[in-house]
Amino acid sequence: MNAFQELISSGKPVLVDFTATWCGPCKMMAPVLEQVKRTLGEKITIIKIDIDKSPQTASSFQIQGVPTLLLFKGGNLQWRQSGVMDAPQLTGILNRYL
Predict the structure, then answer these.
(1) The whole model's pTM is what?
(2) Which residues are catalytic?
(3) What are the angstrom distances between the C-alpha of 58 and each of 9, 20, 74?
(4) What is the pLDDT of residues 30-46, one digit of tens each?
(5) What's the count of helices (H) and strands (E) in the chain, helices before strands?
(6) CA 17 distance to own-chain centroid
(7) Beta strand extents in the chain (DSSP E only)
(8) How many CB atoms within 10 Å of residue 30?
(9) What is the pLDDT of residue 19?
(10) How many CB atoms lie within 10 A of CB 12?
(11) Largest CB tally within 10 Å, which of 48, 53, 59, 63?
(12) How many Cβ atoms from other residues are within 10 Å of residue 70's Cβ?
């Protein structure tokens, strides 16, 4: 958890994708996140956290369902949403925080 805290506390915005291997909608988010990363490049860090492998982290952010996206900037939660969205929609939201 310490490395996670350090990562989300960095100056660069960090988008955290809480996911699970058994989750169908999560699989749909993978190409969306790849497209967002290509569009935004070095402006943002995107990481995935498997809720089954990191239950304490998921629990500490009250993750109820997957996929759930959390955006941190300077260690502070800026935005949160559960469910699937398309790349243009997600990019538009993230651009507000960059």
Answers:
(1) 0.95
(2) 23, 26
(3) 17, 11, 19
(4) 999 999 999 999 999 99
(5) 4, 4
(6) 3
(7) 14-19, 45-50, 68-73, 76-82
(8) 13
(9) 98
(10) 14
(11) 63
(12) 19
